[in-house]
């Protein structure tokens, strides 16, 4: 097995020359075709044992209210074999800030689906995984070549691949690295990696704009999911010690609570939890926190820091999750920040500063690089809270949360 470093050295000049952050929204077609012929996907493998799972598969569908998804027969059939997370929340609207949040632990004020590039001093889950050489990858249906950075592909006509649904491509700390770019691959490579037993331990899967329901509806996305997962669930290599999560980026209706239909499946799900439901409060940030707790990784020091952990994982680590009174919670808008268009959030030029000291739910320290970059500054938000809120603009404020610690002590708070 090649380590990431040795392979990068081996391929040396060629891949490095090709890799750079590109600010071209619509690169010339000739350039796309040339790169399609020359850029090779990279599929590192690793086997770092986790507390509750050895592989995590994160699959996102689009824009559906909880009740609509729950009444889809294909999704209901899959959920009934797994654990239904009834209280799982997307973090804002529209799509892109939710995908952004899944990788960087923050929305950075984003309230739109524009062409964004997060500066290189913002860390992501890729940095967390790299601390233990845990192989990661993304599978983006119809991305024309690994690491393509354009706004969409094809560049005109019906929607197929779109950048706004690709979490890691938004970050310069990923796109400035030749090797990392090549870990952002298409579905052809997914099946290739599956066949050759070189799937990563973390993967994010984005179906195209038809299959994920964005340009269609739940009938199409439910059927796609059922077809996609049915054969994979029978594949021993795929499911063994694997936790599969199916969720939605956001609800379709903006004025209701952003509670999205979500379930867990796969060989790593304890048998006792199959066919049951879980009322624990989770957000997209809970995934990052759970990945950290599972593999003993640091925190990004952003909204992942205070997020609840998957319930049975929390039991293993001893962390006590918060209960959140969601009767007054919407999570349908973003706090202020530099990526705001003043649509639903307030534009403010400064990049939010993460928290760099104190305890995070995953039980580990904040990533060294985050501490080095931001450690001299005061955290912008209360990132140790179990959900994002912003007292300046009043976003998600007035929400009560509490937990009863093992010694019987009750901790209560209200976002304000
Ligand atoms: C997927 O990526 C592979 C490897 O880069 C490439 O050869 C292939 O043409 C791509 N397939 C599609 C459908 O874009
Ligand atoms: C989306 O992918 C499917 C195959 O999974 C393909 O049949 C369909 O044409 C694609 N949609 C678009 C609009 O390209
Ligand atoms: C499944 O995982 C276990 C433990 O990680 C391993 O011993 C076993 O060989 C795996 N089975 C397959 C078919 O990969
Ligand atoms: C969020 O929900 C509240 C309550 O329904 C509503 O007043 C507000 O307009 C919603 N925000 C967006 C962006 O739709
Ligand atoms: C992070 O990068 C941005 C954009 O280059 C810059 O404005 C900001 O000052 C940097 N922050 C820190 C703490 O280095
Ligand atoms: C931040 O959140 C924590 C709980 O997660 C809470 O204990 C603390 O009081 C909050 N801090 C402020 C300044 O609101």
TrEMBL record:
The protein's GO terms of the molecular function aspect are: acid phosphatase activity
Q: Which InterPro entries match?
A: Alkaline_phosphatase_core_sf, Phosphoesterase
Biological process (GO) annotations held by this record are: phospholipid catabolic process
What EC number(s) has UniProt assigned to this enzyme? 3.1.3.2
Residues spanning the signal sequence: 1-19
Q: What UniProt keywords are attached to this protein's entry? A: Hydrolase, Signal
Q: Which reaction does it catalyse?
A: a phosphate monoester + H2O = an alcohol + phosphate
Q: Which Pfam families match?
A: Phosphoesterase
Q: What is this protein called?
A: Acid phosphatase
